[in-house]
Each structure stands twice: as structure tokens, then as C-alpha cells.
Design brief:
Layout (H helix, E strand, L loop, with lengths): L1 H18 L9 H13 L6 E6 L13 E6 L7 E11 L2 E21 L14 E7 L17 E3 L14 E3 L8 E8 L2 E9 L8 E6 L5 E6 L4 E4 L2
């Protein structure tokens, strides 16, 4: 089964080699390599840059090839440093092969801070700009539009010139630490209300600690809206 899978992979590489041959006519070897890798992974050429590192090819434009095949030496996501075995063909016959190492970098129009933003500061249009940036090493999704930034604040301090990602922001909780709230308790026909003070932030549906202003006791309640909580039975 493993042998069959390996042959299927090799067959796919050969098919790729022949079907992309026309794209190599009249271009440099370096450009052929870059174009071949882009086609291999079906990348968007305007969003990616490929830089050749430690080039060790023992052939160049003097080799009269009409197609190239690219065999990645690791089955990883095409990002950062990668190694490939490159084979040159002419009319289906293998001419020569060697290894190359490349760096694959990604770029995108993303939101970038124009000044420092403090923890819990609102994210407003005057503090950000849309800019083309490298996102290769990002582990979180970057923000690409100013839409839907209303009611957003910073989870931590953000440096000037930093890309905004989903891990740096959150919706401002409707209940904030120290805020006065209305406490509700319902049990059948019995309804009780009291005033209290939130002891931590809370989003709707979350359980937070509330201090009852009259009894001075701390209780756990569920956030209902931006001014009310409900006692948990």
C-alpha cells in the first residue's frame, strides 16, 4: 500500500512536470524555480515571495531543459525555509537533478498600529492603518479590515507598528470590574432584586463574582446584559 502511494506521488510529480513545461520557455532558471514552486502549491503569486537560499544546482540555463519537477524533501506547509529536489527534463527524458533550499514568505494587507495602544484601550481608526506586511511567522489570524472594530479593546499593550491579530483584541465586556449592577433572583413566583458591584469583567452568559451591596457577601452570577446579572441556583 505504501509503495502504491509513493508511486502515485511520483506520477503526480511527473504530470506536474509536463503540464507546466510551457511556463519555462524564455525565462531564467531562478524564475523557473520560483514559478514551479508557486504552481506546485497553487499559491497566489502576488501574496508570496520565494527567495533561493544555498542554491546547489549543478545545472543552469546552459542545460537545454524544457521542464522541471519539484519534490519537497519534507511534507510540511509551504512556509519559511524548505528544501526541494529539482529535476530537469527534456522531451520527457531526465537530464540532471540537484537540491535547493528556499525561503517562502507571505505578504498581506493587514491592520498595523500607528501608535502604542495600552491594555484596555479602545481600538479606533486613528490608531491603525492598512499596510502590506509580511505575515509568514504569524501564528494568529491578522485583521484585514476596519469593519466591525466598534466595541473592541486591546487585551494587552500593543507596540507601534505591530500587526493586529485576533489574540491581541477582544470585544469590550458589557460588565466591567467595579461596575454597579442589578442582581436578579427568580425561583418560581419569587423574584428578588438587589444592587451589587461587579468584581471582575464579564461577557453575556459568563459567570462572574458579584458583591451584594447590602449583605456585603460575594456571590457568583451569570451576566444577562450590560447592567444586570442573575443569581445561579
Amino acid at each position: 500500500m505504501k509503495s502504491e502511494s509513493r508511486w502515485n506521488w511520483l506520477k503526480w510529480l511527473i504530470i506536474f512536470c509536463f503540464t507546466t513545461a510551457n511556463g519555462f520557455c524564455g525565462t531564467s532558471l531562478e524564475q523557473d524555480v520560483k514559478s514551479g514552486i508557486i504552481k506546485l502549491y497553487n499559491l497566489e503569486s502576488e501574496d508570496v515571495e520565494i527567495e533561493l537560499r544555498n542554491r546547489r544546482l549543478d545545472f543552469d540555463e546552459t542545460i537545454n531543459y524544457d521542464s522541471l519537477s519539484f519534490n519537497p524533501l519534507t511534507r510540511t506547509e509551504p512556509r519559511g525555509l524548505m528544501s526541494f529536489k529539482v529535476t530537469a527534463f527534456r522531451q520527457g527524458q531526465e537530464l540532471t537533478s540537484d537540491q535547493i533550499r528556499v525561503k517562502i514568505s507571505y505578504f498581506q494587507e493587514v491592520l498595523v498600529t500607528t501608535d502604542r495602544i495600552g491594555r484596555r484601550d479602545n481600538i479606533t481608526p486613528d490608531k491603525i492603518t492598512l499596510k502590506r506586511m509580511e505575515i509568514t511567522s504569524l501564528t494568529d489570524r491578522p485583521l484585514t479590515s476596519e469593519d466591525n472594530l466598534s466595541g473592541i479593546w486591546a487585551l494587552k499593550r500593543i507596540k507601534k507598528g505591530q500587526i493586529l491579530t485576533t489574540s491581541l483584541i477582544e470585544m469590550i465586556p458589557p460588565i466591567l470590574n467595579g461596575q454597579g449592577v442589578s442582581i436578579h433572583y427568580n425561583s418560581g413566583p419569587l423574584e428578588i432584586s438587589a444592587r451589587g458591584t461587579a468584581m471582575e469583567d464579564g461577557h453575556i452568559g459568563e459567570k462572574i463574582r458579584i458583591k451584594n451591596n447590602q449583605s456585603r457577601k460575594t456571590i457568583v452570577c451569570t451576566v444577562i446584559d450590560d447592567e444586570s446579572v442573575q443569581i445561579i441556583d
